[in-house]
Amino acid sequence: MSAVVLASLAVAVTSVSRQQRQHRDERRLSDAVAVAASVFVVSSSTHPRGGSVEFFATVRNDGPRRVYVKNLTISQDGLRVVQRKASPSPLVVSGGSVDLGLSIRLDCAMRSTPNRGDLLPGFLTVESQNGHSHRTAVAIRATALTDVAATLCSVGPRLFRELSGPLVQTSVT
């Protein structure tokens, strides 16, 4: 009879251990976040009047679960890049991507070198479906952006300007 009790106890302990391991693995999977980002430019010479340039970051979700993009920031060498806020936060499904509008400010007085084609280090904050926030370091290849910054600063070393949006300020008469 004691062998039956011991066998039952061993089965119960094994079952509890397996359930705990499965719960831990499921939690680790739900917390897993793998994202990547890159920058691209959209320009128009006619709309709005005088033209415009808009910068976007494509955020790709390589993780197993969907995530909500909360924040993307880059601040280096006279460039300040921030995600334009969207409400609600953009959802990126596993294997999917989303394009985020960016606000880009350039302060040429703060630029140390006119490097072109740099990887810009920044941080991307996402929220997993279980509500946990994850802040991930990203290195964004932003050749178009660094080329624009280098060119503008070479002709206007004291320039401070928002690079996203209308190129020419027009007034209505």
3D structure, described in words:
By secondary structure, the protein is an alpha+beta fold. It is built from 2 helices and 10 strands, in the order H-E-E-E-E-E-E-E-E-H-E-E. The protein has helices at 2-31, 143-155, and strands spanning 35-44, 52-61, 67-76, 79-83, 91-92, 97-107, 119-128, 133-141, 160-162, 165-166. Strands 1, 2, 3, 4, 5, 6, 7, 8, 9 and 10 form a 10-stranded antiparallel beta sheet that branches. A hairpin with a 4-residue loop joins strand 7 and strand 8. The longest helix has 30 residues, at 2-31. The mean pLDDT is 77.
In short:
By secondary structure, the protein is α+β, with helices and mostly antiparallel strands. The chain has helices at about 1-30, 145-155, and strands at about 35-45, 50-60, 65-75, 80-85, 90, 95-105, 120-130, 135-140, 160, 165. The chain has two helices and ten strands; from the N terminus they run H-E-E-E-E-E-E-E-E-H-E-E.
Q: Helices and strands in order, then pairings?
A:
Elements: H1 2-31, E1 35-44, E2 52-61, E3 67-76, E4 79-83, E5 91-92, E6 97-107, E7 119-128, E8 133-141, H2 143-155, E9 160-162, E10 165-166
Average pLDDT works out at 77
Count every beta strand, where a strand is a DSSP E run of 2 or more residues: 10
Provide the structure class.
Answer: alpha+beta
Roughly what percent helix? 10-25%
Q: Could you say which overall geometry the principal axes of the C-alpha atoms support?
A: elongated
Sequence of secondary-structure elements? HEEEEEEEEHEE
- Radius of gyration (Å): 24 Å
List low-pLDDT spans.
none
Oligomerization state? single chain
The end-to-end span amounts to 99 Å
- In DSSP terms, counting alpha (H) and pi (I) runs of 4 or more, how many helices? 2
Q: Summarize the biggest pleated sheet.
A: 10 strands, antiparallel
Strand content: 35-45%
